[in-house]
Amino acid sequence: MATPTIYKTTSTSPSLSQPKGIAVDTELRRLLICDSGNNRLTWCHIDGINQISTKSTYNGNSFSAPSGALYHKGYYYVADTGNHVVIRLRARDLAYKDKFGTVGTSGATNALLNSPTGLTTDGIYLYVCDTGNGRIMKLKLDDLSYYAKTSAINGNLTSPLDIDYKRRGGEALFISDNGGGRIIKCQTDFTYIEQNSLSVAVPNMLVYHNDMVYICNQTLATDNIVVLASDGLTWLTTFSDSTVVIDIPYGIATYRNALLITDFNNNRVTVWKAYDPRDAFDTDTVAKFGGVFFDNPLIIVGEDQLIVGATQESGSPNRWVEENPNNYSIGWVEE
């Protein structure tokens, strides 16, 4: 278990009640929080998490326990859970644009949702956790019209709560199956790839970042953040800290090297340093790639090959190994 570096913990500003989903606008450097208990959205500057404004209505309707948020290319997408709709807002001023579903009406048809929560996009489609129906809805991003759905991925979904998309190194979706206590990895057509072998007690929302999956884990003892490798979904570490005791970590987002986590029962947002596997290396620990250990590795990356040189202390390579880079997880950095 790792003890995180705590960057920031909000107290009374902004004033939140049972915050859930959270989304980061990296262009305007702003943060949108699903202020679920207040039936509104809270909009903040990301630096210092200082409140800009709140939004309680859209297109003549009042928010009802909004739970999921996503930012993509100038727009926020929000799951207005209690109203059973997903809406699109212009990011610069939170002006309403359009929606999917019927406000105040739940259902299991291709035109209706039941308590939607987490969202993600691959740039063409919007994927929505239709939690009350135990399915994932796939909508066309340009007009929020229905495209496809699934209710089973290696078994039926039980309250799917969140979903995130990975592009680099092969497309994939990661799903937090809250009621099933599992994390599922599948293709964008919902073809099953794998799921975690270690139990995550009650997985809330998750995020993919730097080739790892961070999961808000609600346990019977100490709530924590579980970190899994994106390939294999194997356990890397858990984050927990006695000085900032989280009581139901719910929503999670990333910004640069930071994790932004909503602390549901404590009505606040905490900001932690993202996990870096190198932090756990001792000076004498050898690096490991693809199951092979190398001493002081020197790495050259080409378009279709990865060359690893196991160097001596003098820096002279004593052997080279050429490999297909798709077999190795080097990690990506994105903002």
Description:
The protein is mainly beta. The protein folds into two domains: 6-280, 6 Propeller (Neuraminidase); 287-327, no CATH class. It is 0% helix and 50% strand. It contains no helices and 31 strands. The chain has strands at 6-9, 19-25, 30-35, 40-45, 50-55, 57-58, 61-62, 68-72, 75-80, 85-90, 96-100, 116-121, 125-130, 135-140, 145-150, 160-166, 172-177, 182-186, 192-195, 203-209, 212-217, 224-229, 235-239, 249-255, 258-263, 268-273, 287-289, 292-294, 297-301, 306-311, 317-323. The strands form nine sheets. The chain has a four-stranded antiparallel beta sheet with strand order 1-26-25-24, with no helix packed on it. Strands 2-3-4-5 form a four-stranded antiparallel beta sheet, with no helix packed on it. Mean pLDDT is 86; it is low at 281-296, 298-308 and 310-335.
